[in-house]
Specification:
Shape: globular
Number of domains: 1
Strand content: 15-25%
Number of strands: 7
Number of helices: 8
CATH architecture: 3-Layer(aba) Sandwich
CATH topology: NADH Oxidase
Helix content: 40-55%
Strand order of the largest sheet: 1-2-3-7-4
Order of helices and strands: EHHHEHEHHEHHEEE
């Protein structure tokens, strides 16, 4: 089973730090300016992060459906499947652990900013997939742990992407992702006829 396309994406500051307009759209609340302390945290996190993504586009096959435990969700896939993983890297884990040792209360904001950053990276990766394959009409993305897709699907997904060796991402026996600021997702699609 071979992917149609595989790509590694280093993610830039622009892709990880949304503008006030993008934040307003996400939060459904007008945001005129990003607070200075949030900007400072962003740059502190970015200084220790190694933000990157990997994605691949596959022809849908029974093997892929079975491998990812997608039996109940297979109808959502169409005839093409894009898989991706995005991470901020282990430097962010160390920064968050350091802040938690100082104070759980103090660790809350950096954790929230890092979560927003990895989600922005997932959005950028999804855009790269959609822009790279305009002939494929992709549906909404979904991730292991949502709907009927079990968290255990992350392990074969990471293996298929080579995210374990390319980005150092792994899933523990308790199904937690490491680095902790990591997102995996699946997009199903069909050729626009």
């Amino acid at each position: 089973m071979t992917p149609l396309v595989e790509r590694f994406l280093p993610l830039s500051e622009k892709e990880l730090f949304p503008s006030p307009t993008e934040l307003s759209a996400r939060c459904r609340t007008p945001i005129v300016e990003i607070p200075p302390e949030t900007k400072e945290l962003f740059y502190e996190i970015l200084s220790v992060a190694t933000p990157a993504a990997v994605f691949s586009v596959w022809e849908r096959s029974f093997d892929l459906t079975e491998l990812l435990s997608l039996e109940g969700e297979a109808a959502l896939l169409g005839d093409r499947v894009a898989l991706f993983a995005v991470t901020l890297g282990y430097g962010v884990d160390r920064l968050l652990e350091r802040e938690q040792r100082r104070s759980l209360e103090r660790a809350y904001l950096p954790d929230a900013v890092a979560s927003a950053m990895v989600e922005a990276g997932a959005d950028a990766t999804e855009r790269a997939i959609r822009d790279g394959f305009p002939e494929i009409r992709f549906g909404r993305r979904y991730s292991p742990g949502y709907g009927k897709l079990p968290l255990s699907a992350n392990t074969p997904l990471l293996s298929l992407l080579g995210a374990d060796r390319r980005l150092g991402i792994r899933q523990s026996e308790s199904l937690l992702m490491h680095p902790c600021k990591t997102v995996t997702a699946i997009l199903g699609g069909s050729y626009d006829i």
